[in-house]
Amino acid sequence: MDEDEEVQEPTDRGYWEEKGSAKTVKLADRLVEMIQGFALGYELKYNKHYIGLALKGRPNNFVTFRPQRTALRFEVKLPKSDETGKRLEEAGLEVLEYDRQWGNYKIRLSAEDIEKHRDLLTSLMKEAFEAKV
After folding, report:
1. pLDDT at position 7
2. Are 106 and 95 in contact (CB under 8 A)?
3. Are 27 and 57 in contact (CB under 8 A)?
4. Tens of pLDDT, residue by residue, the chain (133 residues)
5. What are the residue ranges of helices labelled H in 38-117?
6. 11-29 pLDDT, tens per residue?
7. Taking a C-beta distance cutoff of 8 angstroms, is the pair 47, 54 a contact?
8. Would you give the DSSP letter of residue 69?
9. Strands 51-55, 42-46: parallel, antiparallel or unpaired by DSSP?
10. From CA 86, how far away is CA 95, in angstroms rounded?
11. CA-CA-CA-CA torsion sign (59, 64, 66, 70)
12. Where are the alpha helices (DSSP H) in 1-133?
């Protein structure tokens, strides 16, 4: 079953601002703004276990977000590869793990990480988007 097809309990922005923080939910907003550069119309879709993406109300979770108190857990759906692993390692990003079940790299991001690694993050999200389309 794909994560898009999972039955998810909808929530709202306030739920995630309480569970994580308003600051870390805004980091998800920043990443969606970056997605707008290559795929217009995507919006955050708030679910109980993660924040996904939707286009015209339809889920397309090529990336998902899990706001925490001080950072944003960013999950990008890409096949595990030495090249991607090397790019992340060289950038010095905090890679938590590769989730084989869902095919996601899990990365902890701060506001500074997003600004410093904007091009790399945009590239990863674009690759995941193109793989899903």
Report:
1. 57
2. yes
3. no
4. 344 445 567 799 999 999 999 999 999 999 999 999 999 999 999 999 999 999 999 999 999 999 999 999 999 999 999 999 999 999 999 999 999 999 999 999 999 999 999 999 999 999 999 998 6
5. 82-91, 111-116
6. 999 999 999 999 999 999 9
7. no
8. S
9. antiparallel
10. 11
11. negative
12. 13-19, 22-35, 82-91, 111-116, 118-132
Cα–Cα distance measured from residue 126 to residue 122, given in angstroms and rounded to the nearest whole number:
6
Q: Cα separation of 72 and 27, whole Å?
A: 7
Cα end-to-end distance, the chain, whole Å = 17
What DSSP element (H or E) covers 13?
A: helix 13-19
Kindly list the structural domains of the chain, giving each domain's residue range(s) and its CATH number in brackets, ordered by start: 8-113 (3.90.1150)
Specify the DSSP class assigned to residue 8. -
**Cα 103 from Cα 105, distance rounded (Å):** 7
Taking the complete model, does pTM exceed 0.85, yes or no? yes
* Total residue count of the chain as it appears in this document: 133
| Distance from C-alpha of 59 to C-alpha of 86, rounded to nearest angstrom | 30
**Residue 103, amino acid:** G
